[in-house]
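Box 3.1. Reading complex inputs
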Amino acid sequence: MTTKQELKALVYEKVAQIGKALSSPKRLELLDLLAQGEKSVEILANEAGIDKQLASAHLKALREARLVNTRREGKYIFYRLSAQSVSRLCVNLRETAEEHLVELRDALAQMTSQPETLISETREVLLEKARKGEIVVIDVRPTTEFNIAHLPYARSMPLTEIEQRLAELPRDKEIVAYCRGPFCLLSEDAVAMLGAHGFHIKRMLDGVSEWEAAGLSLEHG
Amino acid sequence: MTTKQELKALVYEKVAQIGKALSSPKRLELLDLLAQGEKSVEILANEAGIDKQLASAHLKALREARLVNTRREGKYIFYRLSAQSVSRLCVNLRETAEEHLVELRDALAQMTSQPETLISETREVLLEKARKGEIVVIDVRPTTEFNIAHLPYARSMPLTEIEQRLAELPRDKEIVAYCRGPFCLLSEDAVAMLGAHGFHIKRMLDGVSEWEAAGLSLEHG
DNA sequence: TCTTCATTCTAACAATCATTATATTGTTTT
DNA sequence: AAAACAATATAATGATTGTTAGAATGAAGA
């Protein structure tokens, strides 16, 4: 028979298993990517900049912690977050890290070349401006990710296509770019590019996870 | 010069550091204890059932992740959570673990000898009943923890003192006991003891962290 | 100085990591 | 159907890191 004390130890062990899953930088990066929608191992490996078998090993750890699920489609295996609560936990972890670790805040500040291009409005104000058409919100992630979920009133404008599609963007309005979240560099690149072409471009750090974790709703499809 | 890619890796590394802090069962137990209020290393070691140098080592890891702070008072060094966001993160981690790991739910169910003594009301209903005096809420943690923070309308009735203080408890009303949280065994013991004496006793799994994380307010002092 | 509380150091052991090589599984071709 | 192929998964490796217990060191108070 298992004593209460042993059960208590077991219970903490299980929670620690989730903690362990969140204790590797690469796994956190994979989770951030998965928060954008389901992806195959190959895509995840490419986007995280690691090789396939390493990605597979990390994904196995995440699967054993039940943070992700899989689905087979032909040769490919698609991974996805097993629930929305997982992305909320990731956001919570990141926010707590940001709150407590100065080095993290410093590194994040260094990642933004032009801090003056960061928007300062609250999410609600931004949403209202977008609704009224006073600003144009562009989603610079790949189209597939946009199609799964995106911010209200956002227009899909993948970083890879921006230069060919400059004509679609207004020159008299402020443009706000966003991407996968505060650690993603896509919107940073978009700001550099559109800024060089003379647009009024700013960026926001939220991705869909952060937006949703703040209690705001997304658009799908 | 550090490239953007290196900064990105650094940033994930820092978040993973928080994850690492949360990846050991003993550290999670220490955090749960600290969520009740500040405690010295010796007290923490005793309550977690480990020796001082091990407690000290784990606390060092938590301190390096900036999840806890210290304060010296004479010979003693008191540790405390560095912010309320830390206990919220712990609750979030535990809830996500509970949601995803069946083994955890099973173990938790086994920890409760009499599942029928678990209350089923929502927090709001319980609060209202306590306000009206329809039930008596008892806090079975040590008095020091009660004094730092406790649930509204709760009465301090440490497990160690219950048997001497039976006369203070009503026999015609439902009594609801709570302790440090869902993994704590104090309220379970209180139910066994008061049940044996013929009281209408139930327990709730919330501790002060869970209560507060649910957006409800606590009483202090 | 002696006692108590806490930390640090050390060393053994266990767990985790990235890498390389090999195996599995399902698809396509013949 | 068998063979070749592509996408993942697993196994084995050495390097690194984490855990733990014991002994030694610090720091404060009596």
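In summary: The radius of gyration of chain A is 19 Å.
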